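User: I'm new to structure prediction. If I give you an amino acid sequence, what do you actually give back? Let's try with this one:
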Amino acid sequence: KLKGTIAVESHAGQGTTFTIRLPLTLAVTRALLLHAGNETFAMPMQSVVQILRLERHEIDELGPSPSIRLGDESLPFVYLSERLGLRQSVDKTSATMPVLVLASGDQKVAIAVEKILPGRDIVVKTLGTHLRKVRGLIGATLMGDGSVVPILDAADLVGPLTRPMSAVPAPHQIVSREETPTIMIVDDSVSVRRVMSNLLKHAGWSVLEAKDGLDALDKLQNAERSPDLVLLDIEMPRMDGYELLTSLRSRAEHRETPVVMVTSRAGDKHRQKAMRLGATDYVVKPYQDHELLSLIRSLLAARHAVVLG
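Assistant: Good question. You get back a string of structure tokens that encode the predicted 3D arrangement of the chain. For your 309 residues, that looks like this:
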């Protein structure tokens, strides 16, 4: 059994939508294979904005941190092996190098690697409970020769570049229970809340659930601490997502809390209304688990000025 879920949504005179969700362990995505520090990594192609061949003299190293010019933009520049904290030293003698421009939200970074191989479809495997806090990675894939290739997390790589990541975090880097971010899920579907809650808990976050807007306000009033981020459905009984979003933005304690709308409503009018009311981002169901996790990490990083893996 695949252990996925099937949801059916019908509207009179419009039709029926069948939504099939499979666990991340069975997800297939398109990725580039990269070589850095004598290691091989996979990068999901949806995070890659541009691939270019950069000449060494195009790197501006006069400022506080290296950067490159791409059109009218100045992008931070970093070597992948240094970003991941790999032990193998970087070869900085070559005249040219392949570079990936990655994007997460409105942030971009140029990352140099040793070699880029053609894109291919890969099966995404999660890292499991014991390795869920490894920064910079969202999973791994198995190659035809039996080798295991880590899959890079663009949101972590695009995050603050003030210090390199460790491939395996030291004990003092692990977030304590008191510092663990809390994410609130507001959705009237029990199955959606359960699946989303399991995903977030597996990623290392605490979860607070509510079945609609009124229930969410009640939970917030009685919670020991405010959530660090809210995942909010639109269509719910008693108080819908728009009404709850308006209520949250009217309160000083929740005015800056990231609120991501997670809904099956894909129309521009729904998105525009949500953004006008103060939504931080808008995700359409069905979504890719790793993309939602990357978005959450990026928003938490912006809110707390640290990358939480």
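You can read the tokens as a compact description of the fold. Here is one thing that stands out. Residues 166-178, 305-309 have pLDDT under 50 and may be disordered.
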